[in-house]
Write a structure and sequence with these properties.
With 562 residues, this protein is an alpha+beta fold. Among the domains are: 160 residues, Alpha-Beta Complex (Adenine-n6-DNA-methyltransferase TaqI, Chain A, domain 2); 206 residues, DNA methylase specificity domains (Adenine-n6-DNA-methyltransferase TaqI, Chain A, domain 2). The strands form 8 sheets. A 4-stranded antiparallel β-sheet has the order 2-9-5-7. A 4-stranded antiparallel β-sheet has the order 14-23-20-21. Helix 4 packs antiparallel against helix 12. The longest helix has 45 residues.
Length: 562
Amino acid sequence: MGNEALPAGWALVPLGDILLGIEAGKSFKCDERPPKADEVGVIKVSAVSWGEYREQESKTCKDVKRINETLFVQRGDFLFSRANTIDLVGACVIASEVKLRAMLSDKILRFKFFNESMKPLVLNYLRSAQGRSQIETLASGNQDSMRNIGQGRIEQILLPFAPAAEQTRIVEKLEELLSDLDAGVAELKAAQRKLAQYRQSLLKAAVEGALTADWRAARAGQLLPPLAGEGRGGGSPQRESSPQAARPSQPSPTSAGRSNAETGAELLQRILSERRARWEAKQLARFAEQGKTPPKDWQAKYPEPVAPDTADLTVLPHDWAWATLDQLAEFITSGSRGWADYYATEGATFIRSQNINKDSLDLSDIAYVNPPKNSEGARTRVQMSDLLLTITGANVGKAAWVDSELQEAYVSQHVALIRPVDAKLSSYLHLHLTAVAGGRGQLNKEAYGAGKPGLNLQQVATVLVPLPSNSELANLMEDVATQLDAATSQYRVIEHALKQATAQRKNILKAAFAGQLVPQDPSDEPASVLLTRIRAERDNLEHPSMRSRRAKQPKIPVEPDA
């Protein structure tokens, strides 16, 4: 944007030309907790990172000698973060409410203005796409994890500056439009939260048996147990309309071919038998590969899975049984620490904790490995129907279900790989691990470490799982899928609306600083006159050395409309 693109009476000026000064606090050791009412805090960058001033995002100053009341944040202060990630460096707020005594830190700056009415205008410009582009261009640092923008560069941010009267009209119109937009966004986010609560209520009802209570009641009076394959969908018989709806003409089935009639306890016993059979088959294969005869009593070395302690557990619905994740899994493992030697720019996918996002597998940020050809590689290779669980980091306890074919993939040391004995249980176990009332809640209680929480594999193995009968499980999962699909559709509609709101905000701000939001008035005093008054007052306040430093400050070219 050049001067020729601005409306009549406007000017493109460096931010430093309209500021009377920039203040910064100091950096020193504090207690890493918010201050109490009778204590003094030092605000952190997170106090200004989220669109509003959050004074509780402060550390506590315990050294009374470091307390400086001139650095206390006051109501109406314009605060600016000079250091943060590439997306958050330059985040700014106007402190609308101040209750605590909190000082500026060395990373939070306070802008001093010629006129208080300029603050909302500058705030909105620095939050606009044009303002953000300049901030990110001027910020220094080689990594996105931490960028810094010094005071000299802040003063070089170019601002489209309207006549004073038009500034007032712009601010009033922005407040009107953005407040309506904010209200709509708040309603959309509230609906998102309600959907998240609904999802957890649905999962709770599923894993506790409440979701299928009517299904059980409808079969309570039947003379015969459900037939193999009975359930809704896939051409199966529909639910009977009453508990007395028996079928006396149907011949009594034999036990063969009736796996869907298994109770939870019978299903568990079948899984345990299959689990042991697989272990024995692997042992025999290993003996054969080594050319050895199996030793006497080799089956006695089978590692029995951890059984649930049911003494204090709640009573489950009829035909359900308690199990542990260990009992239902062929094995539970994770990668070792030695994978750094196998990192590559292409090859097999290396699944890390950040790839398990929102309880699903997110491979938008992929790392690659050339995997080892030993047992480590074989043990950690991911297969269809596996469950993946983060066991280290900020998203500890998040679970993903591998429900589609993957190219060759392996797990890191921060991800547990759980292979169910019965692949048909994978979707139910994933549901259980994402339920706060189920595995998610159990693991949250077990996670240790404040800074970087973690879980060990034994904690994962002992997760308690309520196991329904096979026939009830099929109906339960169909009910859950139907209701979750409906909730997901609503969530996507909300996400689309939020994206539209973001685009609308961007367009409103762009129009405001292009002179297109409110009409111009030729009788307005030009911006140049106001700038002359600001410069005169600043020159009166500044020490001569400051004016000299400002004059010598190298100019860094930026493109405000990039």
